[in-house]
Amino acid sequence: MSFIREERTIAATSESLFNALTQPGEIARWWTNDLTVKPEVGSLAEFRFTQWGAGVLQFEVAELDQDEKVRWISRQGPPQWTGTSVIWQLTPIHNGTKLVFTHDGFAQIDKVYESTRGNWDYFLDSLKSYLETGKGTPGMPLYVK
Fold it and tell me: Exposed/middle/buried for 108, CB within 10 Å: 0-12, 13-18, 19+?
C-alpha cells in the first residue's frame, strides 16, 4: 500500500490545531465552507466541493484524542480513496505544534494519488496559514479538477 505523508511545524498550540481539525466553523476557514461535521467518534463528516465540480468527500470520524490525534476513514470520494485513512498526529514543540499528516491505504500510485498529494499539500499550507495569520485559502486548487 502507498501513502502520503506531510509534516508541518505550525506556530499554534496543539489545542488550536485540534480545534481547526474538528470544529466546523474552523474547518470552513481553511478547507471548505460547505460541510457537515460533528466532532464525535462514529459520526460521518461531509465536505462538499460541488461548486468547483469536484464532488463530495465523506469520512467516518474514527478517532479523536484531544489535542493529540484525529483519524478519519474515507467513506465517499474518489474510488481510489475507498477505505483509506487520514491521520493528523499533533505533537507540542517549542513555540508551536508539529503536525504529521498521513493519508494511508492507496492501492497504487496513479493520477488520483498524485492529485491527492498536491491537494493535501495545498490544504495543509492553508491550515498553517489560517492558524498563524488568521487567513486560510479554503476552496479548490485550480490544478485539481
Answer: exposed
Average pLDDT over residues 74-91: 94
First vs last Cα of the chain: how many Å apart? 25
Q: What 3-state DSSP class applies to 45? A: strand
**Comparing C-alpha atoms, which of 144, 105, 138 is closest to residue 124?**
138
Cβ atoms of 75 and 60 closer than 8 Å: yes
> How far is residue 26's CA from residue 23's CA, in Å, rounded to a whole number?
5
Q: Contact 47/66 with Cβ under 8 angstroms?
A: no
- The three three-digit cell numbers of residue 49, written as one number: 466541493
**In contact, 3 and 87? CB cutoff 8 Å:** no
Instruction: Identify the residue whose cell numbers are 487567513.
Output: 135
According to the model, what pLDDT value does residue 50 have?
A: 74
pLDDT at 145 over 50: no
Tell me the domain boundaries of the chain: 2-133
pTM score, whole prediction: 0.93
Region 2-133: CATH code: 3.30.530.20
